[in-house]
Write a structure and sequence with these properties.
The complex is a heterodimer of chains A (145) and B (76). Chain A is an alpha+beta fold and 145 residues long. Chain A is built from 3 helices and 10 strands; from the N terminus they run βαββββαβββαββ.
Chain lengths: 145, 76
């Protein structure tokens, strides 16, 4: 399992590939890999957004991500989990979050990936501040999905 | 030991406080910590954590705890 909060841009597809090849997963052991990648849009609530700043609660956020990954691993019988999340200044089209679940069969990987993502959105201590043409604005709540 | 308090995001900017210490008193609750810090009732959408776990405002704090106040989360 790998949980990381990054202040630099990353390529989610490369990260998945590198993690699979790093030896954490035995080749041939998994039949399914389900991934969610959340990227930054250049618009929100009818306004252009040029930059977004992501803040987190150091210590609590890492613990929350680790807990939700461990719980998903136990309840869905996952073989492995990878979660990466950006913080700091982010530009449109940059990946923000990557959640990956590996399992023997597809149902567990699909369902666990969705569950982990929904828990992350509703509980994990991150906050977004947008830069718009009319100034800065803290995002007040996440969309329902 | 005092209570260590942290504020995040829009709340940090509004109060102009990222961290501060509040003197510990016996049977103190999270709401008491907020009121000592701001002299106000907590706003409706305010969230709080004690030692990195979500708690409600009636939760009792212990000497040396870290209490955090923040608005609704918006990650992902």
């Amino acid at each position: 399992m790998k949980i990381e909060i990054r202040s630099e841009p990353y390529d989610p597809w490369l990260e998945i590939s590198l993690y699979q090849e790093s030896g954490g997963l035995t080749p041939g052991s998994f039949g399914a890999c389900s991934a969610f990648v959340g990227t930054m849009r250049d618009f929100n609530d009818g306004s252009a957004v040029s930059v977004m700043e992501l803040e987190h609660y150091e210590g609590m956020t890492e613990q929350q991500l680790s807990n939700l990954a461990q719980e998903a691993q136990a309840s869905y019988g996952l073989l492995d989990v990878l979660i990466l999340h950006r913080v700091g200044k982010i530009s449109p089209n940059d990946p923000i979050v990557l959640v990956v679940a590996w399992s023997a069969h597809r149902a567990a990987a699909f369902d666990a990936c969705r569950d982990m993502m929904e828990l992350l959105k509703s509980k994990a201590t991150f906050w977004k501040k947008e830069t718009r043409p009319d100034g800065h604005r803290w995002v007040s709540q996440n969309t329902s999905g | 030991m005092p209570i260590s308090v942290k504020c995040f995001a829009s709340l940090r900017e509004r109060l102009n406080v990222d961290k501060m210490s509040v003197p510990y008193e016996s049977e103190m609750t999270v709401q008491d910590v907020w009121q000592q810090m701001t002299n106000q009732s907590p706003p409706d959408n305010l969230l709080c954590a004690r030692n990195h776990e979500y708690v409600n405002f009636a939760e009792t704090v212990r000497d040396g705890d870290e209490i955090a106040f923040f608005p609704p989360v918006t990650g992902g």
